[in-house]
Amino acid sequence: MRASIKAALLTGLVYPGAGHLYLKKSAIGISFLCAFSVPLYLIISEIMTKTMGIVEQIGNGEIPLDVTAISASLSSVTAMNPHELNIKIYALITIWLIAIVDSFRIGNKAAQR
Predict the structure, then answer these.
(1) What are phi and psi of 65, to 5 degrees?
(2) How far is C-alpha 45 from the chain's CA centre?
(3) pLDDT tens track for 39-95
(4) Which residues contact 69 (CB under 8 A, 6 or more apart)?
(5) How far apart are the first and last CA of the chain?
(6) Which of 1, 35, 45, 63 has the fewest beta carbons under 10 Å from its own?
């Protein structure tokens, strides 16, 4: 398998920047790793914060130990600011696609030398 395809698959299936690290382009790979990790961290931390609030409410007895009540509370977790969440998700997708294309491009360029 060509290095460009292997790098693109690593970036697409493992994590953005993994293909660049495979191609020994550490600075670019770490840049993509960090650029992807920041919005991912922000999404996960916001979900965890809201979920922990629901867990505290269950512990305090504000939400009964009933499947329907807990389910209704959890559905409010997804009611985050949808515009802000969409921006973060689009940033993740954009970074991932750019990383895939760039790792393939760098792999092709290296193969032509």
Answers:
(1) -80, 70
(2) 12
(3) 999 889 988 888 898 889 889 988 888 888 888 887 766 556 778 888 989 999 999
(4) 63
(5) 17
(6) 1
| Residue 99: pLDDT band with limits 50, 70, 90 | very high
Q: Which domain holds residue 15?
A: 3-112
How far apart are alpha carbons 57 and 112 in whole angstroms? 60
The burial class, CB within 10 Å (0-12 / 13-18 / 19+), for 38 is middle
DSSP symbol at 63: S
Nearest CA among 14, 18, 12, 13 for reference residue 32? 18
Rounded Cα–Cα distance for residues 36 and 58 (Å): 33
d(CA 69, CA 75): 10
* Number of neighbouring beta carbons within 10 Å of residue 46: 16
